[in-house]
Amino acid sequence: MGLSCRDIKRISFPQICGFVFHCHNHTARQDKTEFVKYVVGTGVRGSVKNIHLDGLKLPVCVSKCVVDYSIMVVKDFCTILLNSAGNVSKLKLHTEKEVIMKKAKIVTATLVMALTCAACSGGTSNAPAANSQAPEDFKPITLRYANQHSIDHTATLAAQAAAEEIHEKTDGRITIEVYPANQLGDWTQVYEEVMMGTIDIANTTVPETYDARANASMLPYLANSYAELDKAMGPDSYLAGKMVDIQAAQGIKFLGYSCEGFAGIGTSKPVPNPNEVGVDKGILVRVPSNDNFKYPTEYLGYRTSTIPYSDTFAAIQTGVVDGWQAGPPNLNYLNFRDVITYYYHYCMDQEATQIYMNMDVFNSLLPQDQKVLQDAFRKMWTDSINSIEEEDAKYIQMLKDYGIEVIEFTDEELAAFADGVRADVWPKLAATYTQEFLDELLDSVQ
Fold first, then answer.
1. 214 and 360 Cβ atoms separated by less than 8 Å
2. Measured between alpha carbons, how far is residue 409 from residues 78, 251, 294, 352, 370 in Å?
3. Closest CA relative to residue 303, chosen from 282, 331, 273
4. CA-based angle 391:395:400, to the nearest 5?
């Protein structure tokens, strides 16, 4: 028998916060991702899903999630309506102050969650597509923008330029504060916070937790040349169109890509026959723990290790691994120039992060301000595509000037690498992306 509204009113505010944070704890262990996906993601827009928590099946509809953590001390909070299929004690509510405060960083400022029974919602968003206020009535807002790049990285400088343009063209109605270098959390945390609305905009790698296709820009040899980049992931590409729908399902507005360079392999020793595929080169390189990187690197003849990225510099320095893969020339120069002596520019994948925004925040903006924002980030997107060949060339020259031997491949060799990886590696990735998606994506770039 479900809980009545009267029962729910008796639950203290710390209890409901403990319930939410308890669920987040489960997500961190990868065994309850569906809860956060629908409660802080799709659920915010009113979807009704069957959520499983410690064996208890709950039909949950989240009608509103607002953040202002300051009222957490107020016990008489807004009415919480929850239609459950069991006893609330089974939720194992964490009421200790320490637990609540420990998890508070996930939600900045206030957390007020209104849970309603399924009958209260039709399963669609109540948020308008845009704010209908007159410009003079719109209260100026400040949006927080998170990225994973260093302060002097091209993507950070581009974001700051976009923020200035948006502030000027909206007559000061929108101010964007850029927080670089993971100041607001790593990319997995930032993505979830954008879903919740506790961070407004971000430019990061996106996790594959909710939809593996979200990181399809990392597919090996999606584009095998600078000339193919716009067709592969430009504003009019098949991938961009799919990404709009994929991110919208998570309550996120997709705004574009930031292309940051074609990735190669940096090593501490010379690689024998680097242009021969399928032949064991006897070289062990660190790759991310993702099949997009592991399979093509092994196809080229390298052995792979998935040690943490943070340990890679020391691992190359001490000989635990001979090099690393998944970084463009700029990262090889900026982060690894003191431990590598060779750089092989395979152009295996494009280091392309996503620019994205909480959908409800976007919908709260005036229509003309939405256009300004989209235009500014579209420009950042296209500029990154158009300038990346020059950016790679600049850092390749810097690597050479530093004494690192750079091996570049001919267009014919790169095309052969791409054909081989698409034929041999992509079918292995179908279980992750679906064969239909991969076929349509490949058709779009050929």
1. no
2. 63, 42, 21, 21, 43
3. 282
4. 150
Does residue 235 contact residue 378 with C-beta atoms inside 8 Å? yes
Residue 433: count of CB within 10 angstroms of its CB: 19
- Residues 6 or more apart whose CB falls under 8 angstroms from that of 296 comprise 220, 221, 348, 349, 421, 425
Q: What span, in angstroms and rounded, lies between the C-alpha atoms of 86 and 76?
A: 25
- Asked whether the beta carbons of 389 and 227 are under 8 A apart, the reply is no
Q: How many other CB atoms are there within 10 angstroms of residue 182's CB atom?
A: 16
Lowest mean pLDDT among 85-89, 233-237, 367-371, 427-431: 85-89
C-alpha pair distances (Å), 69 with each of 16, 154, 176, 246: 13, 34, 21, 30
Q: Judge whether 47 and 61 are in contact, CB under 8 Å.
A: yes
Question: How much is the average pLDDT of 160-171?
Answer: 98
Query: Using the 8-state DSSP alphabet, how is residue 110 labeled?
Result: B
The amino acid occupying position 163 is A
pLDDT digits (tens, 9 = 90+) for 385-415: 999 999 999 999 999 999 999 999 999 999 9
Dihedral of the CA atoms 276, 296, 260, 41 (nearest 10)?
Answer: 180
Q: What is the 3-state secondary structure (H, E, C) of 390-437?
A: HHHHHHHHHHHHCCCEEEECCHHHHHHHHHHHHHHCHHHHHHHHCHHH
Secondary structure tally for the chain: helices H, strands E: 16, 14
Which pLDDT score is estimated for 128? Answer: 59
Looking at residue 6, what is its pLDDT?
37
Question: Is pLDDT above 50 for 196?
Answer: yes
Please tell me the distance from the alpha carbon of residue 66 to that of residue 72, in angstroms, as a whole number.
Answer: 12
The model's pTM: 0.72
The model's confidence at residue 134, banded by pLDDT at 50, 70 and 90, is confident
- The alpha carbon torsion through 161, 156, 28, 213 (nearest 10 deg) reads 80
Q: Please, what is the Cα angle at 160 between 159 and 162, to 5 degrees? A: 65
For 112-133, write each residue's pLDDT tens digit. 333 333 333 333 344 557 788 8
Phi-psi region of 293 (alpha: psi -120 to 50; beta: other; left: phi over 0): alpha
pLDDT of the residue at 129: 74
pLDDT in tens, 299-325: 999 999 999 999 999 999 999 999 999
Quote the CA–CA distance of 338 and 316 in Å, as a whole number.
10
